[in-house]
Design brief:
Blueprint lengths: L2 E3 L5 E3 L14 H15 L2 H4 L5 E4 L2 H4 L10 E9 L5 E2 L2 E2 H14 L4 E12 L4 H18 L2 E10 L7 E10 L40 E4 L5 H10 L16 H10 L5 E3 L5 H13 L2 E5 L7 H10 L13 E4 L4 H10 L7 E7 L3 E3 L8 E3 L3 E5 L5 E3 L13
Parallel strand pairs: 7-8, 12-17
Antiparallel strand pairs: 1-2, 3-4, 4-9, 5-6, 7-9, 10-13, 10-14, 11-13, 12-14, 15-16, 17-18
Length: 400
């Protein structure tokens, strides 16, 4: 039986014949489920890329010669489901979370989010006053993000067969014209779902584009959302209230792309925290991601809470932060753009991308050489490096 330790040091069995809470953690077990079941059964080339949003190229007959007003003739599409408990928490609620989560996923592709669907699964007996409060939050957050809710669905299950409310949102955006953003070496529409469309145009941002020498930025402090949820759920009191960071980051992303047009990718470090995000990017691009422990912004209250609870803050969920990988020569410009954004005041340059090292196998009897696996590291305050693993098991269920 395959056993590993989760973020709280508890043993977790990874070989299972049923779904566990850990399969939704954003960590290693969720990736096992995705790769071993979903991708194996119905994984398309687009789905297998592993980005937060799918880029779907419109054929010329639909897009028109110039994209029919859709820039490169490509759409970004993403979907997400929200089951967070409690439904209302310091800094946000399930409605704001449902909008921000999908808007941010669409925006990571470099597309401009425009339209959302909102679907509810409601339990019989759920308060209409609470539902109106959540819908009001959805409307306010959509206005802030500059998107419209254009379709939806509602289902009601019997009392006791749900947990009040679950929300699914799907989002669609458009990829802007690629004039200034077109760069040599960036993948083309051959890597986007093109159907019969064969024109070579620069595509969206992707984790596959990260290269050795690139720099890693984070748009703000880590761990705020996860600790806000657990403190509210478990009635933990701190000297000051820790608030969720949930926020729409599409405007921040647009500002960074304006300042750093050769940006490789964005990724929001939600479930599994920045640990999962950096490991995902490393495997997508066959690189090594290394971040500096002392450069990572973390609020003192959050750091203290993590120490008390036995959590690694790098594995704690965030809902209003963005990891950004940029060429070294554009890192300063990207950081300035983040600092100028409403949600980027605490942004920091935290690390770099390198190639996996190659070591000789001489003396082992194997001959030849072996290459380091794509992975993530943390450079400690003492100058040493430790492996930054994905979360194993479920640290905090129903975080989003």
């Amino acid at each position: 039986m395959n056993q590993s330790l989760n973020g709280a040091g508890q043993e977790v069995e990874r070989d299972q014949d049923c779904v566990l809470l850990a399969h939704g953690s954003g960590g290693a077990m969720m990736h096992d489920l995705i790769e071993g079941l979903f991708l194996d059964v119905y994984g398309s080339d687009v789905l297998k890329k592993g980005d937060d949003a799918a880029m779907l190229a419109l054929p010329p007959a639909v897009a028109g010669v110039d994209g029919g007003g859709f820039g490169s003739g490509a759409l970004a599409f993403s979907t997400d489901t929200f089951v967070v408990t409690p439904r209302f928490f310091p800094g946000g609620d399930i409605g704001r979370l449902a909008v921000c989560g999908t808007v941010n996923d669409v925006a990571t592709s470099g597309a401009q989010p425009l339209w959302l669907s909102v679907a509810f699964v409601l339990e019989e007996g759920f308060s209409l006053d609470e539902l109106r409060r959540i819908c009001t939050s959805i409307a306010a957050t959509a206005r802030e993000a500059g998107v419209q809710v254009v379709t939806g669905d509602t289902k009601v299950v019997s009392r006791g067969q749900g947990d009040g409310i679950y929300i699914n949102t799907s989002g669609v955006g458009i990829l802007p014209a690629q004039s200034a953003k077109a760069t040599a070496g960036r993948e083309t529409d051959a890597d986007v779902d093109t159907g019969t469309h064969t024109d070579a145009r620069p595509s969206a941002l992707s984790g596959t584009l990260c290269q050795p020498g690139d720099r890693i930025l984070i748009s703000g402090t880590l761990g705020d959302h996860g600790i806000a949820i657990i403190s509210c759920r478990e009635n933990l009191s701190f000297s000051t209230t820790i608030k969720s960071d949930v926020a729409p980051l599409n405007h921040l992303i647009a500002a960074v792309l304006e300042a750093a047009p050769n940006t490789r990718c964005f990724r929001d470090p939600t479930r599994g925290g920045i640990a999962s995000t950096l490991n995902e990017l490393a495997h997508q691009s066959n690189t090594v991601m290394t971040i500096d422990e002392e450069a990572i912004p973390v609020r003192d209250q959050v750091r203290g809470a993590c120490e008390m609870l036995g959590y690694d803050v790098l594995q704690v969920a965030n809902e209003g932060k963005m990891v950004c990988v940029v060429p070294a020569e554009e890192a300063d410009a990207a950081l300035v753009a983040m600092h100028a954004s409403r949600y980027g005041a605490d942004a920091a340059l935290i690390g770099e991308v390198t190639s996996p090292s190659t070591t000789s196998d001489e003396g082992t009897g194997a001959g030849g050489s072996s290459s380091e696996s794509p992975r993530a590291y943390v450079r400690t305050a003492f100058g040493s490096k430790r492996i930054l693993d994905m979360l194993v098991g479920e640290q905090l269920p129903r975080i989003c």
